[in-house]
Amino acid sequence: MRAYACVQRSEVRVIKMALVSEFLGQLTLSYGTDKAVAYPLQEAEPTFPTVVAFRDFDPISDAARLDAALRTKGVDEQSIIDILTRRSYEQRQEIAFGYERMAKKDLQTALKGALSGSLEALMLGLMKSPAQYDALELRAAMKGLGTDEETLIEMVCSRNDRELADIQKVYRELFKKDLEKDVAGDTSGDFAKLLLALIQTKRDEPSNVVDYEKIDDDAKSLYEAGVKRKGTDAAVWISILTQRSATHLQRVFERYKSYSPYDLKESICKEVKGDLEKSFLTLVECLENKQMYFADRLDEAMKGKGAKEKVLTRILVSRCQVDLMKIRREFKKRHGRSLYRAISEHTKGDYQKALLSLCGGDD
Hints:
mainly alpha, 20 helices, 2% strand, disordered N terminus
């Protein structure tokens, strides 16, 4: 109980700091007569994790517990879940090192041999670094016959430039292939151009100056390349949406409404279709409110009978140390029930227990 209380206090401190950072980041200045006005610059995106470093951490004890759980007849899944879903990635690596010394075998190999199905995929995902996990998911989306465009869109459009650069480096190390070339080979047309422009990581860094003239120019260019003309000049949209900073684009989207009778997302739906439409919408939604985007993805994954377990696993594994606490709040706000309750209703067994542990609690 004492260890659990320590984790809760640690989570509360992290959340409070993140909320203060978020509040400061949302302070804006009204349009004035000057072209540019000084604006507070955020050095890093705030985090809203549900999984934080375990306070009373003992990697040798955890490794021994895992060894016993994996040796038990029938496998003690609950102990595996309790340990791996409540430790940070860095702590899991320490546990893996201790386990290998103790059991003389690789922990990931042992987990793969003892578990199966969605629980296996989730636990193995937790043992990967964020970049490794994303690289593996992208590779799986393009491997074999056909392409999982939905996964490509989600992952490429929701990651920032630093994350995409890390993914490309790891992708090359793991598969001896170039991510950009693989994406180009599996997609086509303007859809390919958009994904490739994002992978090339040419987005501007956030500035401590708000350039109102540039904001107006970009908003006008988006309107003239789409709603104002017959047909859509997708190249203009791709250039602006993949090269400007997120804070700049948030102001562009607001300014766009002064030119167009539709907001930008409505304009996208009117102007383009198919995978290009989905990718543009995903990109805009992530630039506006990334956590709301993921909340909606989770809701879609749990509609109807059963659940899209690959989507649930990918989002909870990849976001639990980033912003899952805020995704939870956005989910409750948008969909009228807690993420915890939704997972409880649409999943079952040990897989459900693992997801709920990563979720971190009911709202």
